[in-house]
Amino acid sequence: MTAWWTLMLRDLRLAWRSGGAAGLSLGFFVMATSLYPFGLGPDPVTLASVAAGLIWVTAMFAALLSLDRLFQADFEDGTLTQLLLSKLTAPGIVFAKITAHWLGVMLPLIIVSPLLALILGLPGSAIGPLMLSLVVGTPALSCLGAVVAALTVAVRRGGALMTILLIPLFVPSLIFGAASVEAGLVGTDPSGALLLAAAVSLFALALAPVAASAALRLAAE
Amino acid sequence: MTAFLDSLGPHGPYILGAYGVVTAGLVGLAYDSLMRRKQWRKRRDSARGDARRDASNTGEGS
Amino acid sequence: MLTLDSVAIRRGDKLLLTGVSFALRAGEAVHLKAANGVGKSSLLRAVAELLPVAAGSIAHQNAHGPAEAADQVALLDEQPGLKASESLRGNLTSLSILLSGRTPGAGELDAVADRLGLAPLFDSPVRYFSTGQRRRAVLARLLLSARTLWLLDEPYTGLDQAGRALLDTLIAEHRNAGGAVLMTHHGDVPDMSVIDLMGHVPQVAPDTGDDGERW
Amino acid sequence: MHYFANPTRFQRLMDILRPWVVGVMLAMLAYGLLAGTVFGPADRLQGESVRILYIHVPSAWMAMFIYVAIAAASFVALVWRHPLALIAARASAPIGAVFTLLALITGSLWGKPTWGTFWVWDGRLTSVLVLFFLYLGYMALWQALEDEEKAGRATSILALVGTVNIPIIKFSVDWWNTLHQPASVVRLDGPTIDPSMLWPLLAMGLAFKAYYVWVLFARMEALMDARRVQAAQLRAAQHAAGGAL
So what's the ipTM on this one? Predict the structure, then answer.
């Protein structure tokens, strides 16, 4: 098994073990989404009109919860140093971390999202577009999150700081992701927004290994 | 003065408000920057002064 | 294996060491003797190419010519580099794949565990290890990393008498097998050429005049 | 470029330039305010409130200009490890943030008479809002990292990542704006600007740039002296400890 798969699967395992972020994010995602009706009222019509946007915003915050420990755990116990001396290049390490984060944290959110769509009164027809928009849009969250996580790895309570740094960068994914679901609802063609969301994710995928590995090398000095 | 206000038309207060905010913002920022520079210049000179005194003491002492 | 040419180390604005030069060939070992806080750990990280040098150069060579630190360096510092929630077997398997590039056989793992007296703990999470056991686990990683240049930063800390003797024999075996060792220790170490880093600490004059290039 | 890396030499340069910078600022400000704000023509559609244009548009220009300046300085700092470029970037951020805030406030004060509400999710205003968050993030990262030298490089990487994402954010916000576009909204900078308004506007733009350079010099000198105090204290501590332990 190559070094890359070893690191990725190990991180995936750790994400779901105690202290890992996956369960935490999933719990937050479900609870926060089911909180909205208490604020907005139970009327399905009003809820359905904002459901896609709410689910997307909550998915972003769920991602944020799991990102600040992405590199910090390895930084604190010295594993990061060993990784930088391993057969993997720094971008390789970053890419493994991003993949483990997406599979470990984001995918479970996507799998649960139909349940939350129903809670928020989203019609059944919109569930497919919602999941598709999340599949296409959330990789950008993991990639940009990895960059900022690497930048704030040496900051003790980096979580709050990360939110400030990441929200502006998350705006495009949110706009295109939520819009593609809206389009599905209104009956217009969602492919435009979907492709744009995918483009943002691909761009983030290209940017993240370069920027994050520079930040990692800096942190490990 | 009121003639001037009338000449600005119904939206006069917004115009004055905008200029007031910008003036306050830019003057405030300039003031903060100049004070910051003066304060640090003073602290640098005093820090450099202490260093010279240390150097001269140890010079005689050793 | 390794050549340092008038290397200087800087941490932030502070110049820690200057003019450090030595060479290290297969089978040799160098002991960098210095008190704490002088910058010996930083020097090791510079040799491992994790920290850029402020001046001078560090060159790695292997049998085929110039090489990268990541090809031949194994670094042992104060951090264990082990995942607390994983078992020692899981940790060592992953690390040996990551560091040596090949999957260790079960027999090989057990042999290393026996050698270091960790066999009974092999399948329990590293979280429950005592300091001494944790340091021995780090030695196990060192053995499995199959790296030729060992960089050991205060390796004796946390080891009991038996552990220290074990480390000495491991070092001797590593050198006989053609490996090299660069070690930092504030005390004395048997049969290693010593470099006293205290001679390389720049004397600092108080700042009196115009700061020219410096601040 | 390395000629000016020496702090004292750069300080002499600043002292030479400063009177010119302040002179340009005052001259441009005087012309812009008189020719534009006070005696300039009113706009056919918006009437008098268009006078806010002379401070809103230059502020928005400066908000963008300074962020790009920070990115350029960060790039120089990262590639050539140029300490002064880093200090220029760090000193510029608060100025950029102030300009962004002023652009937002004047934008909303301009929006009130035109659309009757203080805040309108117009594409450009929204982009400036997101830019404001980027400034806050940049400054927050400077505060969060204790190690001065690492903070410099981390913030430089963030500034570059931020800059690379600005076009995407701008495009997505405009795309989003056209998606939710209410009926014909009067664009903030009005129809094509006729020359009688353009020259004062450009003058104000130049005045704001000169202002930026002037305040930047002051904040840079403060940061440079702060570094010198820190270095002097460090040396004094080392010297008191007899060079080393």
Answer: 0.88
